[in-house]
C-alpha cells in the first residue's frame, strides 16, 4: 500500500483510517481506472463508489464493528477477491503455518490459506489443538458464522480455486517460496514453503494438478497505519501437555477477571464472552490472543482473527471453550436474542449457515461445511442456551443490556 | 548379547556364528532355565532343543539362506517374540523413523515398528516414497511374501498387541524416549521418540488407550559378531525431486552392471533381480542399499531388510521397480518356476498370502493385508511373467539355471 494515510485522532465513532485526498487521487489516477470528483481539501474523505472495494472496506471500519452487514460493498469486496487477477504471491511471516499474501489490481491484498486435507477429514483425536492443521474452509465458515451472529468482527473471507502454477509459482518473487515447488509422484504441482509447522516435503500443498482450493481473507489496514493491540485472553489455554491454566483450577476465576482492567469496565467482558460463544460453536480452541484497533482505545469491538483451526471435529463438543460464559454468567442481550432466534425451527442456525455458505464460489465443488458440522452447530447452540439458563438459576444480572429502547425487563422474564 | 561368539573362518556352507560352549553354558545356566549336555570342547556347536529360539535361528543361518523354511524353530521363534515377557524397550538409532529395540528373557531381541496409520490407508500420492510412513503390517507381510517366494531372506517378523504403558513406558531406561510420552486429548497414551522424520507431537504413536499393534522382527547376530557389508543398489533411485538416476536415462545400463564386480560373477545379478521381483510385488521403492554377511564373501544371499515402506499403495503398480529384470533379462530358474506356480489358480499368490498371514497373531483384529493389496499381488505377478516373456522374445539365455538335475532345456521350452 503506497498511500499516505493519516489518522483522525478522536474518540468519537469515526473512520479508522482516512486517506489524504491528493495522494489518493494521484495514486488512483495513476492506476488508470478511478476518477475522484473534486471536493474541498482537508475534509474527511468519504467512501465513493469509484473506490476499490478493499478501500471502501477500510474506510467503513468503525469503533463498533468491522463492517456493516447491509453494506453492499461487502459483496463487492468478496467478488473482487474471488475474481480479480492475482498480481503477486509471497509468504506471509508470523504464525506457525503456511500462508501467502496475495496482491490484486488497485492495491488490494488478501491472506491466502490453502486446502491441506480432505474437506470432511476430522482432526485426529490424538493431536492437540495447537498441532491441528489450519483449514481454508474453517476461515470461510467462521466469517459467515460471525456475520450471522451479528458480530461482524471477522474480516471478509471468500473461497477461490487458484492455479498454483500460473497464479503462484510463475508470478512470485519470493525465492524461499518458489524453491519449495515440485511435481509430486502423482503428477501434481506442490509446494510447502517455509514455516514453523508442516512446511516440509512430508506435508505438501498440492494442486490437482494445478487447481487448489484456498481461502482469501481481506487484509486489514496495514499495521503501521492502523496499529492494533494484542491482548492475551484471560481464558488462554496453558499450551502445555501437562500443566493446567489458572481458570481450569479456580471456579471463581471470573471474579478476579471482572476486577481487572479492561474487563472491569464497558463491554470488554461481554465481548470476550461473545468470542467464546463463536469459538464454542465452531470448536476453536486456539484463541490465545485477540486484537483491537489501538485508535479506538478500550471501548471497541474485538477482532475475531485467525479461525483456521475451527471446525476440526463435529462428533464432539469442547465444553471448556464456554468457560468464560459459565464462570462469569454474563451475556449481551443482543447476542442472547440472536442465539434464541437461531434456535427456532424457522431460522435454525444450521439452515441459515447452509444458505449463507452456498453463496461462496467454492460451494460448487462441495459444501463448505459437511452436514455433521452443520448439525453440530445446532447442538452447540442448544448447549449455550442451556448454560445461560443454568446461570439464570444461580445469578442475577446476567444480561448486559446493549439494546436501548427494548421494552420489558429481560432479566425478569428470561423466557 | 553378552555371549562370546567366535567366527568359523571358512568358505564352505557352515554356520555364520558359533558359540563358545563354556561361555554359553555358563550364561544360559545363569539364566536358570537351560541345561546343556556335555560335549567335547572345541567341536562346532550344534543347535539344541534347549537353546532359546533366537539362538537356534542365529545358528541356523547359512551361506544360502537366512533360515530353512521347514525348520520347526521358525514357528518357535515367532511364538517366542509374540508371547515372551518384554524386559526392556529402548530406541534403536539409525534409519529415519521411530523404531524400538525390545529385549526378552534369555537375551532375545527384536526390532519393533509401531502402527502409525489405519491399516488400509493408502499412501498419499503426493508424497515421495522416501517420505512415506513405515508400516508395521508391511514388515509382517514382507516376511510372509519373501518366504512364499522361497527366498528366505527376510528375518522372521511377527505382529503383537503391546501395552505401551506397561511394556514400554514403565520399563524403559531410555530417557529420550520416556520424556516423549503423553496422554492425548482423546485420552490415549502416546509417544513420539526422537528421530529424523515424524518424531514430533504432530505425529504421535498412540495406544487405544494403551494397546498398540506393532511388528517385531527377530534381530540378526550383532554387527560386532557377524559383520555385514552394505551394498549400494545399482538401480538405486536418485532420492531427488528433480534428478534422474543413470539407469533411468540409459536403457543399456545393465550391460555396464554385468561387467562390474560382483555382478559379473556368480548369482549376484540374479539375486538382485529376485529382490526387484519381491519389491515390485509389494511396491517397495525404498531399496537403496542391501546387505550381505561379510563372512560369506560375495557368494551368498542378499538380506531383504527394512520393508516398512512396502504395501503403501494397491491401486497402482510402480513399473520402475522391475527395471533390473527388464534391463538385464535374467532370472533364476527356481524363481521363475515359483512365480509360475503362484500364478496358477490352484496356488494363486493372493490365496497363499491370505492363508499365510492369517497365522499372525494380529490377523485376529483385521486382515494384515486388505483384499485390494492381495489382488494387487496377483496383478503384479502377471506383470512380472509378462516382462519375462517379453525378454524371451528378445534375448537368449534368460534363465539362470540354479536347479541341477532338472530335465529339459528351459530356455528352449519356456512355456
TrEMBL record, chains A, B:
Q: A GO term (biological process) for this protein? A: enamel mineralization
The residues responsible for catalysis, as annotated, are 286
Give the main location. Golgi
**Which keywords does this chain's UniProt record carry?**
ATP-binding, Disulfide bond, Glycoprotein, Golgi apparatus, Manganese, Metal-binding, Nucleotide-binding
Does the record carry Glycoprotein as a key word? yes
Q: Which cofactor does it need?
A: Mn(2+)
For whether the record's keyword set contains Acyltransferase, the answer is no
Annotated Pfam families: Fam20C
Where is the signal peptide, in residue numbers?
Answer: none
Amino acids binding ATP: 97, 113, 134, 217-220, 291, 306
Q: Where in the cell is it found?
A: Golgi apparatus
Q: State any single GO MF term.
A: ATP binding
Q: Can you tell me which residues bind Mn(2+)?
A: 134, 306
User: Under the cellular component aspect of Gene Ontology, which terms does the record hold?
Assistant: Golgi apparatus
Looking at the record, the residues that make up the FAM20 C-terminal domain are 181-396
Q: Which family does it belong to?
A: Belongs to the FAM20 family.
Protein name from the UniProt record: FAM20 C-terminal domain-containing protein
